[in-house]
Amino acid sequence: MSDVLLTKVAPTNREIKGTKSKKPKLFIALCTIPTLLLTIIFMIIPTIKAFMMSFTDATGMSDDNKFIFLDNYKYMFHDEMFIKSLFNTFKLMLVVPVITLAIGLVLAFLLTQTKLKERGFYRTVFFFPSIISLTVVGIIWSFVFHPNMGILNNILSNIGLGNLTRPWLGDSSTALWCVAVTLIWQAAGYYMVMYVAAIDGISPDVFESATIDGAGQFRKLISITIPLLKDIIGITFVLSLAGTINLSFIIVSVMTGGGPAGGTSVLLHYMYTQAFQNSNFGYAMAIAIFTLLISFVLSFLSRLLTNRAEG
C-alpha cells in the first residue's frame, strides 16, 4: 500500500518542482516585455529611421525624400562648421573628464581620510550641483561670466586685475573653456560620491599600516588610493566622456547658443541646428549617426573595463 502511495506522490512532486522552476522564468519574461516594447518603440525604431534618413536629403517639409546614399557623410567632412564642432567636442572630451575626475577623487579622499567634523555638510554641498537642472546651471554660470554683472569680472577688478576682465562668453578664445568650467563644476560632486563609496570599500588596515610606516596623505593618495581604484577610475572616465558629449549640448544651448562664430558649437548642438533651424534633417541624422558611433565605442570600452573590474 505504501509503495503505491510513493509512486503516486513522487511524480506529483516532480510536477510541482517543474512548475516552480518555470514560474520565475515566466515572471521574469513578463516583467521584461514592457521594457522591451518601450525600447523597441522609442529607441530602436527611431534609430533605424534616423539611420535610413541619413541617406536622404530629407528636409522635414515633405515625405518626398531623395535617396542620396553617402553624400551627407561625404559632405560632413568637408563642412568647416562640422569640423569645428567635432574639434570643440574633442577638446572638451580631453579636458573635462580628466579635471572632473581629479577633483572628484581628491575631494573623496579628503572627505574619507581626514577627520573633518563637517564631512556630511561638505559632501552635500559638493554633490548639490549634480542635482540641479542643467538649464539652471547654465543660467547661473552665464551670470558668473557676464561682462557687466558677472562676479568674475567684479572680483578681478577689485583685486587689481581689471586688465584681465573681458566678455568671457563673447570671446571665442575663452567661451569654450567657460563651458568646460561649467561642466566640471556640475559633475565633480557626482563622481566624488562614487569615489567615496569606492574608498570606503578599501580596508582601513591598509591606510593604518601606511600611517604607521610614516606615509603622508599625499603618499596615501598616490601610492594606495589611486592604484586600488584604477578600474573604477577607468569606468568613470568613460562615463565622463559620454556625459561630456551629452551634457555639453544643454550647457552650450543655454550659455552661448554655439557662438561666438561657432566657437562653442559641439556635435549635438550642430546636429540640432541643422535639423530644427535649417530643416536639413538628412544631414542632421548623418551627424547623429556619427555621434552614435562615438557613443558605441565608449560603451564598448566601458563594458571592457567593467568586465575587467568584475574579474
TrEMBL record:
Record's bilayer topology term: Multi-pass membrane protein
Annotated SUPFAM superfamilies: MetI-like
Keyword RNA-binding: no
Keywords of the record: Cell membrane, Membrane, Transmembrane, Transmembrane helix, Transport
Protein localization: Cell membrane
Ranges of residues in domain ABC transmembrane type-1: 86-302
Keyword Cell membrane applies: yes
First and last residue of the signal peptide: none
Transmembrane domains' residue ranges: 26-45, 92-112, 124-144, 174-193, 232-261, 281-301
InterPro entries: ABC_transporter_permease, MetI-like, MetI-like_sf
Pfam families tied to this protein: BPD_transp_1 (PF00528)
Chief place where the protein resides: membrane
Family: Belongs to the binding-protein-dependent transport system permease family.
Designated name of the protein: ABC transporter permease protein YurN
Species annotation: Paenibacillus segetis
Gene name as annotated: yurN
